[in-house]
């Protein structure tokens, strides 16, 4: 096997413990995987960013708005958005090197199972791309992540093509109308899947729609906290 | 049956380019001219073609443009037709939302846009673009030495051969190889041929561009490298890093490859793949090198590869022969990040203390730390000594400061072994027995000294604690060239 990131050949260490057991497939070398920063310790309990206070100032701002308070139960991100993560995500998502997502697989699945094993009857919903963006990229990164999980994912949302989110200010994004529409009715708890939680506005737009349709709780589970 | 299987295995091992279509048009028209200029000789992804769907479809339906499958499939693997990659771990599959199936894509060349098996490459099969007719394209007025002239004639002869022709130009560091190319390129351009000069290093492209635009003022010349301003690739004369050839196919009548022995051309199989593909089927290939690899030397010796030697520098003086200096305490000094005592003794007794000094060391850490200890030595003035290495952000500025004589000593890793010219330097190698200093590296390093006609000599000294084969071979190679030069 070669490391998916640095292409270095990986020589599996044979120890007594794994001598008779087939090895778990290894997608990245220890050095490269070590550069990814797993988010644990003191985090904002609502958006999952590194934070000493229980709830960060961003989330307090969301809570102050009657329109947005409680729309999203919480967000959990698996990794911090450090330089390594930025590089890997850019190559994966924008260059389109699909195979790279296997680097995240193990931590992504483990964290999900630890957190959501007790949520009963929940459905996994990946954040969709617009038709145009999907054609350009060739794949939807949120669907790729959702595909790692043991639960079937439901594509109940569709997205209208608009300007790139990154080109807008926070105010623009808040004021913009909801880019999502619901294609199928849904009334179960929902775990939204996306690659990056940055301001949280995209996920909240999706969550708001689902809540209005009758979902009791909407959670977000994302790869990285931007 | 057996025959076809062997053929398939053969074409997997040795790439063929018979999949590149040929043009069915022979006459250019004003309508097609603009696209002929834009696309001729290029192998492109749909995303790289700035045309509306309608117009592209029109070009396709009239055979002006042709699509080509982008990935070759074999029972035991694949080959990417853009970069030549056939390594299993550099292919992966993608559940593709464009075509709705899961299929293979190339990971190796993905920085230039993704090559997927469901999406073809596009190739211009319309008429060749018109080139400006010029009776004397080259306006360079300088004079060549007799050695340069001899090589220049051979180069021109090779370029004018109508069938495939190869020539290795084995010219010492400082032979003046750019000027030797002018005569042949002049004739090629005059006959409407398209020429490419590829070199492994972007700084060389940047340095050559003004020299060529001055020498060929009426020819369309383009400089292509990662991040270059020009990126169209439409010129009749293209100066490019070898990497840029990944976008060309059957484009050039003449391909000149500078420093054919150098990394990364030597190390990355994509680059020979791309340069062979960029050449037209009956193109002339000129290889330039001061330190050919064994493979080429053997081919020259067995007369499989034609070669011309330029054993004398353009100023006519012999190459400085390195002195080998044994010092037993070398490793001991280096582990303390200090230069050996012998180095200081040599430095004090240099023949010409006005010369600047280049010090080569094997690793980055040593470059930085030994600089600190040299600064503490009374022989050197603190402010005029610094170090430089590949990942140094100020590399360009430091090299320029040394060139402007604002620095007297530059400590460097092997990054300055090639391509850079300083007029008056002495050269010392600390730990010359280290693995990074192979024969080619040592010959190139020694070649930094004595470049200017005003100071055509220079001292080259290798400090070591045990002679290596590479050191001995480098000294032999230099002496050989000097002998060859005397006998002419
Ligand atoms: Zn790695
Ligand atoms: Zn928060
Ligand atoms: Zn490729
Ligand atoms: Zn496809």
UniProtKB/TrEMBL annotation, chain A:
| Name used for this protein in its record | ComF family protein
Q: Which family does it belong to?
A: Belongs to the ComF/GntX family.
Q: Which residues cross the membrane?
A: none
**Origin: domain of life:** Bacteria
Q: Which CDD domains match?
A: PRTases_typeI (cd06223)
Q: SUPFAM superfamilies this protein is in?
A: PRTase-like
Q: Which organism is it from?
A: Aquibacillus koreensis
Q: Which InterPro entries match?
A: ComF/GntX_DNA_util-trans, PRTase-like, PRTase_dom
Automatic annotation (TrEMBL), chain B:
Every copy of the Helicase C-terminal domain together lies at 338-488
InterPro entries, from UniProt? Helicase/UvrB_N (IPR006935), Helicase_ATP-bd (IPR014001), Helicase_C-like (IPR001650), P-loop_NTPase (IPR027417)
What SUPFAM superfamilies does the record point to? P-loop containing nucleoside triphosphate hydrolases (SSF52540)
The source's superkingdom equals Bacteria
CDD domains the record matches: DEXDc_ComFA (cd17925)
Q: Does the keyword DNA-binding apply?
A: yes
Q: Mind listing the UniProt keywords for this protein, alphabetically?
A: ATP-binding, DNA-binding, Helicase, Hydrolase, Nucleotide-binding
According to UniProt, the name of this protein is: DEAD/DEAH box helicase
Its ancestry begins with:
Bacteria, Bacillati, Bacillota, Bacilli, Bacillales
